[in-house]
Prior knowledge:
The protein is α/β, with parallel strands linked by helices. Helices cover 18% and strands 24% of the residues. A hairpin with a 2-residue loop joins strand 3 and strand 4.
Amino acid sequence: MIDLISNYHDENYIDIALMKRDIDDCIIDLSKLPKLINLTIINCNAQLSGIAEAGTWVYTNDFEGETQLLAYDFYGFYTDNAGYQLSLVDTDYVVQKGDTWHSIARRHGIPLEDLLALNRAEREEKLFAGQVVRIA
């Protein structure tokens, strides 16, 4: 897949986000990835990215009883020339046909109860295509 994308985009501008647990479970072999891409590691509830090759690290932390979604940009992949941090994490999701609270929570690795609380929603509430849902 990366080879295909590389035909259309410079590898220096390609970012791949992977869950650390998928690497630990040998679902993904990092040696198969090109060295020029930015590797974003999602390692929730951790004090380190846990992967030496990581260019970006996304993690969670609790602050005053609230779960915070944080990111660290080791090599400036998401920092513009003026030094401003660009968004590492989308905070909103546009609902697609067939989505449910459960499917959105699973897709984004968010506990269902946290997703519902973020949106001040109840489990029974229906979603509609085009609706904007907070995910962070």
